[in-house]
Amino acid sequence: MHLARLVNLLEIISVAGRPLTAAEICSVTDLPKPTCYRLLQTLLSESLIEEPSNDGRYIVGERLIRIALLGKSDVDVRRVSSPLLKAAATKFNETTFLSRFRDSKVEIIHVETPDDPSRAFIHPGMGERPMHACSCSKAIAAFADEAFMEKILAGTLKAYTQHTKTTREMLMVEFELIRNQGYADCDQEIDVGIASVAAPITMGNIGAIFSVGAVGPIRRFDKEYRKEIGIKLTKLAEQISDAIQLCNVAEV
Fold first, then answer.
1. Are residues 41 and 74 in the same domain?
2. Residue 193 belongs to some domain of the structure
3. What are the pLDDT digits (tens) for 157-188?
């Protein structure tokens, strides 16, 4: 019964479309005011709702949004992001891909390739990527909380090629660079001759759950070219973030 009441309050706040006062919320329930206020304080203490302006008006909290986003299926995410990825693949004339963070790992979940039949492109494959070596992973890891970043740095930093960064010091420097420039790159760190660049897809204040990237042969993906695409990917990341969140709000 207690849980049902909490869920009912969350539903009222979610569908309102604007911040609600405690009095407004109580007015549409059959709960006694003291009970309603107590339940609102419970939700507030768990960050399931928030009082952004400290004026007694409540909205859905970042924690609830995070739970909803983490629970969103790959099918839903691909559905709203694939048109944007395809447009970028056509515009860049390079392979683009979407990655997702979950269960303490990063996986590539969708890939779009150029339409140009004369263009030699690289398909990055699907599935898990190393947290310390791939651009899509580093774009997310650089913005992770300190505890998780320490977990990455404390793990085995396998050398896939002579270009892989395998020390804590090297990665700390790179993570700082990624945070400053807004994107990460991979210069032959997993496979010789292949480079990639990726930007984090952030969701409000809950950090980077996804990343969007592009990959190609090193003969095209030199440092300047990666910078050029990296800047474009940061803008694409904002578009994908908006698309995923709008989809999430519509479902809520």
1. no
2. yes
3. 899 999 999 888 898 899 999 999 999 999 99
